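Forum: Protein Structure Q&A
Topic: Joint prediction for protein chains with partners

I've read a bunch of threads here and the consensus seems to be that you should model interacting components together rather than docking separate models afterwards. I'd like to see that in practice. Below is the full input, 420 residues plus whatever partners are listed. Could one of the regulars post the assembled result?
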Amino acid sequence: MALKHIAESTVRRLSDYLRFLEELEAQGQQTVSSGELASLGGTTSAQVRKDLSFFGSFGKRGLGYTVTALSRSLRQILGLERTWKVAIIGGGKIGRALAQYHGFRERGFDVVAVYDIDPARIGVSLDGVVVRDQRDLDADLTTLAVDIVLLAVPAEAAQPLVDRVTSAGIRAILNFAPVPVQASSRVAIRSVNMALELEFLAYELVNRDA
Amino acid sequence: MALKHIAESTVRRLSDYLRFLEELEAQGQQTVSSGELASLGGTTSAQVRKDLSFFGSFGKRGLGYTVTALSRSLRQILGLERTWKVAIIGGGKIGRALAQYHGFRERGFDVVAVYDIDPARIGVSLDGVVVRDQRDLDADLTTLAVDIVLLAVPAEAAQPLVDRVTSAGIRAILNFAPVPVQASSRVAIRSVNMALELEFLAYELVNRDA
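Posted by a regular:
Agreed with the consensus. Here's the joint model:
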């Protein structure tokens, strides 16, 4: 199936809706209106209806959406009906925090391996995941059937590792290194640069009305 | 000064250009062409010229940009010529990793305090920054002249803390809690949701051509 041309902001809102639906499900609520979803997500009910319309017809006018059915559909749309295997490269502070972040497993992302080049870090257990020697990375990616690689390495190591893991067949990378990285259009790359987020806030503090 | 209507993507590219310029500066390079900046940043030289044109006239046709002058201008534009004081709320795994992340200080973001409500965490030193009792937060924000708050707390604690710190005068928040938060338009908020980034990758893995 070709990539649907859905804006990133839409996908993010779908993720938010799913979170709210899961909360409502836990509370035993059976139906929800677009207005209710909108107010939880800080958007409008027209936006909610538009977002959901990309993917088919949900809900009935005046009756709202069935909570369980809509959350099941969203999980399917977002690719969350299965577990994804995640490998983290880099066992420094960021890599360790990511390895121990419970929010991943809760959402179906299973950290199966952490890699480092530093002998002092190799062999250390992080919530049950032992840090492995980065020399084993290429073979492991296949053996462990890794779906997504998280890069938590210094800037200069990032692009060579992107090249290396994409050669090994990886098609999704979340980059925490403070540098933009590139790969072929067949590879999905997201970057999280925390210093850059702070710089954006600094920019707004300097340029916004007092 | 009113907020200039510069797209977020432009600000991000300016941050990237600045990084490259600083590398070139360290290597002793004196001038740089828009083409060279473009190839480092994975964009086009027309884009580089357009991005820089928002902020005035830099460089000379055929001669390129003076590395030191352009990087000084970009630091000024991005609000990086000064140090920003950062407080982290939440001394869990994410909060601790952020407190010990060296990338912040290098970019002029100085973590001056970390807060938690858990007595077992209060008093612990994180690279010289002692975790403080969250009851002292409101008074401290003023005393310590905090500019930016990083929220590394559970979902349900996020919005009440946003309300609390904005009441105390905070106008920039970086939210790591896995939930959208809201404040008045006078407050700049950025959110980093790592599970959401993974969900976006999962979405692309499911919907992209194989």
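The mean pLDDT of chain B is 87.
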